[in-house]
Amino acid sequence: MNATTDKDYIDAKLLAATNQMIGDIKAANAASDGRLATIDARMDGRIASIESKMDANFARFDATLQKSTADTVKWVAGVVMGLGVIGISLMTFLLNNVVPKASSTPPAPIIIYAQPAPAAIAPQQPQVSKELRTNPQK
Asked: How far apart are CA 16 and CA 22, in angstroms?
């Protein structure tokens, strides 16, 4: 064997093996690219589906929130108006039924009388029951 021919032979074999490996890698990449494209398409479809469901749920939640806010405002306004009517009615009733003030005649003067001093009371003898007086033995 000749070194030049051996070298050419080995170079040709190495080139063929390299080309075959490059071809296999390109085929594997193409297959994985196809799978990734399929997965990507599925994920895009699912993400779009989830986004549309979330948008619908948020829209429904927003409508419910708006309705409950409107109902709360109506109730608060009704209660405030009702309390106002009750307060005005109560004030009107009380003012209409208040005892009228006395006439503007001056009141009678206040007279203070001095009380007489109490008379001195003589000390009393203890009372002995009639029974003891008649029968001291008991």
From this structure: 10
